[in-house]
Amino acid sequence: xxxxxxxxLFDLDDTLFDHHRSARAALAEVHRRHADATDFDxxxxxxxxxxxxxxxxxxxxxxxxNEARRERFRRVFRxxxxxxxxxxxxxxxxxxxxxxxxxxxPVFRLALDRLGVQASEAVMVGDSWAADIVGAARAGVxxxxxxxxxxxxxxxxxxxxxxxxxAPAVDLLPLLLGAEHVGP
Length: 184
Hints:
Rossmann fold
């Protein structure tokens, strides 16, 4: 039997979650791992410039989102005089996408500490398998995958509950709270 949850964590970009800070932290990690011989401020300025350029291409439908992400990092590294193989560019773009930081145990530990609960007393609801679900599992937090597009569920971690909508809330409460019955 699942323990009754005392805390429910939601991933809500730019609502309850500071996307800008997280993106900057992920960018700092990319810099540390792949471009630490360069100045971070310059790295970040190039990234912002190429992000804006590629965003226009994506919005116009000329470039697919994942390719835009790879091209952005190609341009950043090239502007800084760094040589990167295509495999390295793919790895960097993929890691940045899922967030070097998001799936780390300390992010969840910080949230649990601030809420004053143990991992076994919390549940995480998120849409990103790599960041939200894997991150929660690594931290020992029960995860619920918000999967509105009904993508195929990865095999690991196993035993993850799946929801396709956030309403009606009364139907979700038992799953969120880990109780068979919610109410008086």
